[in-house]
Design goal:
The structure holds 2 protein chains of 2 kinds.
Chain A (H helix, E strand, L loop, with lengths): L1 E5 L13 E5 L3 H11 L3 H5 L10 E5 L2 E2 L15 E6 L2 E2 L5 H6 L1 H4 L5 H10 L1 E5 L5 H11 L3 E5 L24 H12 L4 E5 L8 H6 L3 E4 L4 H14 L2 E8 L2 E7 L6 H4 L12 H4 L5 H18 L8 E6 L4 E6 L21 H5 L5 H6 L8
Parallel strand pairs in A: 1-5, 7-8, 7-10, 8-9, 10-11
Antiparallel strand pairs in A: 1-2, 3-4, 3-5, 11-12, 12-13, 13-14
Chain B lengths: L2 E4 L1 H14 L5 E7 L2 E8 L10 E2 L2 H4 L1 H7 L3 E8 L8 H7 L6 E6 L11 E8 L2 E9 L1
Parallel strand pairs in B: 1-3, 1-8, 5-6
Antiparallel strand pairs in B: 2-3, 2-5, 6-7, 7-8
The chains are: A alpha/beta, B alpha/beta.
Amino acid sequence: MSVTVYIPTPFRALTGGQARVEIDAINVSGLLGDLETRYPGMRDRLRDDAGSLHKFINVYVNSDEISDLEGEATSLKGGDDVSIIPAVAGGDIFTPGQIQRYSRHLLLDGVGPSGQRKLMEARVLLIGAGGLGSPAALYLAAAGVGTMGIVDFDTVDFSNLQRQILHFTDDVGKLKVESAAETIHAMNPNIKVEAHNAILDSSNAFELFEKYDYVLNGVDNFPARYLANDAAYLLGKTLIDGGINQFEGQVTVYKPGHGCYRCLFPAPPPPGSVPSCAEAGVLGVLPGIVGSMQALETIKQILGIGEPLIGRLLLFDALSMEFRTLKLRRDKQCPVCGDNPTITELIDYHEFCGAPIPHELAEQRDRVPATH
Amino acid sequence: MSTISISRSDADAVIEHARKGAPDEVCGLVGVRDGRICRLTPARNASPTPRNRFEIDSRDLVQVIRDERDGLDVGFYHSHPASRAYPSATDIHFAALWPGALQLMVSLRNDRGGKGVPELHAYRINGDRVEELRLIVE
C-alpha cells in the first residue's frame, strides 16, 4: 500500500529536490529501508554506524512521532503520511547562573568564555586539605574548576582552624575530605569533588594522579613531598608545589622536562632536622598566601596564560614582606628527571627519608584505599 | 547583507516568549515568505537542561510540514537569556541539520526583566559559516 513520505529541505539534495515521494511499505522499517535503497546517502543521514536511527531524526506517522507509537515496527496503511524531520536544537555555552557567577572572568581578556570552559572542564588533584590545600581549593572552586580531587586521611582538629580555612569549628572530628567537600559545595555547588580518604603512598599515587590534569601539592612532610614529585614526573603531570615554614613560604611549578624537586633537593634533610608545622608552629595567614599562589599558578596552567613559575622558585618572607625568585634548572644528574635516571618507579619514601612509618599508614596497608 | 523583515507584533511575541521562559531558553518556528517572517509558532523546549539547551519538542516540530505545505520556508527561533544573540558553538553544531535555515535569536542579557533592551538578530548558518541578516522590524 502506498504512503506519502515528506522529505525535509535538508535531505532534498538526495531526492533530486523532491519534497514528497510515494513508497509501498507495510511498516516504518520497510519504508525507511526502501528510502535507503532508493537514495544513496540517505542511510548515513538516518542511521548511525550500528544501524540505529540517529537520535536527532524524528519520524512521524501522520502527526505522531514513532517513539510514541511502536518505533520502526509501527505499521502503515494506505494514505498515511510519513514525515522525516531532523531535530532543531542548540544552546548557549553557559547557563544564566554561570554567566552571572563567572562574569568577571568572561569579561577578561585571557579568560573569556573559552577560558572559563577550560576551567570548568579541568580536573585538579589537591594533595592535602590543610593549610595550603584550603585556600587553593576555595579559590579553584570559586574560579569554577570543574572537578577537584582531594586526598587526605586526617580528621579536623581544633589546632587546624587557625589556618585551614576549609574547616570550621563545627567540623572538628569530621574527615577532612568530607568537611572540605561541604565547604567547597557551599562556595560553588557546580564543582564536582572527588574525596579520597586515604594516605598518599606508593601503592595509590599513580592511580590517584592519573585521573587528573594537574596536581597541587599541599603536603606537610618530606616522604610525601618526594613521593608527589616522583609520581607526578613519572606520569608526566605538572606539579604545582608549595611549602611553608613558620614565617616563610615557597612556590614553584614542576613541569616534566624543566626540573623537579629532586633537582633542587636530591636527598631529604636528616630526620628531625627540619621541624614540621606541628612542631615549630606556623603563622596563620602564611599558607593562605602560598596556597592562593598555587591556585593562581594552577589556573594559569589551565588557561595557558602568563609566565608560569616553571624553572623559578618563588620565596616569600612574611616578616620582611619580601619576595625573591631563584632560577631552577633541570639537573642532568637528577636521579628522577636527569639524563640517566636511577629512580624509574615509586620507592619506599619513609625509608628514603629515614622517617618512621606513621601508624595510620600501617593501618591503611590492611585496607583498600578509599576513593569515592 | 541580505535582509529579512518581521512585524512589530511578531518581534514582540518572540521577546515576550523569551521573557516568560527565562532563565530557561525558549524556542519556536518561523515561516518565511518573500523575505518576510509571516508565521510564528512557539514550541515547547524538550531539553532536560533548558538553562543552556533547547530542543524543539517533537510534538511541535510537525509544524514544519504545515509551514512547508503552505509554501513557507522553514526557520526557527530561540533565546539566550543571559548572553548575546549570536549562535554558540552548540547552535552551530545543530544548525548543520538545517543548513541555511533562518535562525532568529533573542537575547535578554540587557533586558533587565523587561525594563531594559532586548536584542533580536537573524542568521543563516551553513557549516561553520554564520551569516548575519539585516533584520527589519516593521
